[in-house]
Each structure stands twice: as C-alpha cells, then as structure tokens.
Amino acid sequence: MRFLLLVLLLTLPFLIGCQGGDAPVVTIYCAHDRAHAEKILDLFQEETGIRVEAVFDTEANKTVGLAERLRAEKQRPRCDLHWSNEPLRSVRLAKEGIYRPLPEDIASGIDDRWKDPAGLWCGFAGRIRALALAPKSPAVGTDTPESVKQLTDVRWRGKVAIADPRLGTTGTHMAILKWAWGEEEFLNWLEALEKNEVRVVASNSATRDRVITGEVWIGMTDTDDIEVVRRRGVEIGEGFTAGDGVILLPNVVGLVSGSPQPEHGETLARWLLSPRVEEILAASSSRQVPLNADAKVPAGGLALNDLGPLLPLNWDAAADTLPGAIRDVERVLLDRR
C-alpha cells in the first residue's frame, strides 16, 4: 500500500504537467493597449478553452518592438497572431512574408478598404488621429485648427506638441501626410513646424498630458488617448482635422506564417474580427470606431458614418513612405535640437 502511495505521489506532478501541456494554446503579439486587450483575450480564453499567451508592447517601444521581434523570428516563428494597433507596419510585415492569408470567409461585414487585397491582414476597430485641445486656451472654439497645416501659424508658436514619430501612430500619421501631400510640401511643413517651435515628446499620452497641464495648447494624438482621461473627469477638448480628410487608423489582425498553432490562431482571428469584439472596444474608454457593418455603436460612441469625409488611403503606398517620413522628421525636428 505504501509502495502504491509513493508511486502515485511521484507520478502525480508528471500527470498534471502532461494535462496542462495538452491544453490548447495560442500565442499573440499585441500592440493594443494592454488594459483593454487583456479583458478581450481573457474572455476569449474563458469561452473557447484555448489558453492565450500574450506578449505586449510597452509605451516606450509602442508598436515598433513587436514588429521587429516578428522579423527576427521569421525563420522560427513563436507567435500565431499579431494584433497591431496601426496599419502601416502591418502592411510592411505582410510584404516581407511575415503573414499568411486569412481564411477567405473571415470578417465579411468589414469593407474591403480596411483589408489587404491579398487577404494577408484585416483592419478592425479604428481610432482617429485628432487634436487634443487645452480647454481654456485659444485653440478651443472658432480658432480650432481644421488642418495640421494651420499648426504652423505664429499664434501657436511653442504651443504645439507631437509624439516621437519613431514609435507608434505619429510615425504612421507622418507617412500618410507625406504620401498625400508629396515630399516637397511635407518637408516645407516640417520646416515650418520647427520654426514655430513645435515640441516633440515621448508618446501620444505624453502629448495629451502636456495639453492637460496647459504647457501646450494643442497636441497631435489619437482619440483613445483623449477619451480615456475624459472618462476620469479630466477636462480636455478634441478636434478632428477635417480639412486634411479625417485619418482613421484601424487595429490590424495578421496570422503569422509558419506559426506553431495555426488552427488556434485562426480561431482567435475570427473572434477578434467579430462584431462583438468591436462593440466591446467601442464601449470601452478607448472608444474605438467599429468597422464591421454588423457592429452596434453604443451611446456616446463614434460611428464611421458620423466622422466626416475620411482621407482616402492607399495603404501599400503610404506604408512605402514610412521609413523616409520618419527620417525626414528626425532630420528636421530632432537632429537640430
């Protein structure tokens, strides 16, 4: 009897380990804000029984860090699904062969303008590039800029902040502007910003915080960074640059080519691209814009049809300008300081 008990005690950890090892698992690299993404991934895990191993970006290397990790692991992928918080770096990863095609029947309610023509990525739950406005400043009211070109006006000298474009969505914004305007107009605008003493800070949230303190009056940022502090009771204004064409940046799902658990990756992709997940993100403090026609916009949310004219985008062409646009901003706004 004692012998049998000893055998059981010795083998129990092994049996438990085998059971845990046999449980389905999916690995995701996620650049979306952890506070919102974790709740969604926890719900997926609870409902499907598929354990989620998530690797998140940090504010310091926002968006860029995981893209570089995917490149480094291309020959031996460890990730099944990439959830990016902006499209251009995903477009570049797709061109480099990092992604494989999504199932053809996935996300049928999302318009083709938010998808890769070859089916390598799909956008969902967008946010808007916006101006954060200091509430008691001249930037609020009839003088609110309708275009980022107006940020070079002398009245805003030293009172405009942008995030470091080498990380996150500010780099995406710069690339889109360079693609839309052409190189000469883009460079002239950067030179005018530098002359007008624009402030370059660490991140979108740092940009917003400079606006809250009144250190600057206007900050180029994203709608989610503004909304999250509004819901804490912080007074802050918001403006969309309709004069440029409203820029909507979707989150992006891409399945990693040669991943360890391709089937579970597809299950997670379908779940993330569902109307339900867009509704969760739309109702959250990140106030994402649903792109799925079947998703319901909550009260106080942002609906795609209510944003004004969107800037029509060629994602591939804009992605091609990304490295050059970032180099331009470095040379004009960073290297001279």
Question: What do you see in this structure?
Answer:
With 337 residues, the chain is an alpha/beta fold. It has 2 domains: 21-126 and 250-302, 3-Layer(aba) Sandwich (D-Maltodextrin-Binding Protein, domain 2), CATH 3.40.190.10; 127-247 and 317-334, D-Maltodextrin-Binding Protein, domain 2. Helices cover 41% and strands 16% of the residues. The chain contains 11 helices and 10 strands. The protein has helices at 2-22, 34-48, 64-72, 88-95, 168-181, 183-195, 204-213, 223-230, 262-272, 275-283, 315-334; strands at 25-30, 51-56, 81-84, 99-100, 122-133, 160-163, 199-201, 218-222, 237-240, 248-256. Strands 1, 2, 3, 4, 5, 6, 7, 8, 9 and 10 form a 10-stranded mixed sheet that branches. Strand 1, helix 2 (34-48) and strand 2 form a beta-alpha-beta unit. Mean pLDDT is 92; it is low at 1-20.
